Amino acid sequence: MQQREEKQLEFALENIVQRVNDLKTSIASMIMKIETEYETLNWPNFLDNYALISGQLTALTKVLSHDKCPLLRNLTLLPLMLSPERDEQLVQMTEGRVTTFAHDLVPDYLRTKLEPMAESKMLQVEHKAANLTFENAQKQIAAYQKVVLHVWDIVNKAREEWEVESSSRGNTQQNSSVADTHLLVAAVGMGKGLKMGTSPNGGNPTSGGMMVAPQNRAGSGSGSIPIPPNTQSMPMNKAPSTIKTNIKSAAQIHPYGR
Q: How does 109-135 read in b/e, with b if 16+ C-beta sit within 10 Å?
């Protein structure tokens, strides 16, 4: 019977140690991502890591609550040897966190109760809760529920407004055409599809695929800036369009500029 209990305890401890190591690895990986990848870490990846840790905690809880797992709270852990000298095996087991197992460290490492300060604060809270009357407790509960309901109403109102605004944006009729916009930009920027007017030097209409530049431009002085011959006309692709306009020379638009 004793050998069976020892085997069950050994198997349970191995399983618990494995689950704890997996949990420790996941927590360390999550902390490293938060510290090193905080600029690129997004919320879905953070939730995935959190879900992994939550699942590992659930698995550890199932192991501890299993029928074949002995009650660890009924067992007593006693140190076999205390020494102020460095223990290499202890350093390896604790991954360098604990180097010695001395008398001054045992109460902290093998503590099974809260620290005295935390225990005293807990006792104060329990004493205050025990002395609270039923009427005062009901009043505090009612006030707390009132605050919660008020916050709930604010959240629901904001949600309704957001849904209405989203639905109104989705039902907005389109008042522009992408094709017409592209056509207008091509006509203004490259002269595509424009109907040409008469040439300012000869009076004859220019060809459909040529845009004639003005011979000179009126300036603030008495002179004018000549246009090189090779830049006075630009060949253009002729394309039918419903946009019709006349491009006049600068001399026709500003006859009194000189």
A: eeeeeeeeeeeeeeeeeeeeeeeeeee
Token pair 């809270």 is at which residue? 125
Count Cα neighbours of 25 within 13 Å in the Cβ-side half-sphere: 8
CA 31/CA 49 separation, integer angstroms: 10
For 82-128, the pLDDT digits (tens) are: 888 898 988 888 888 888 888 888 878 887 677 788 888 989 998 98
Taking the CA atoms of 116, 118, 119 and 121 in sequence, report the sign of the dihedral they define: positive
pTM of the model: 0.41
3-state helix, strand and coil shares in percent for the chain, rounded to the nearest 5: 55, 5, 40
Q: Cβ contacts of residue 98 below 8 Å, gap of 6+? A: 90, 91, 105, 109
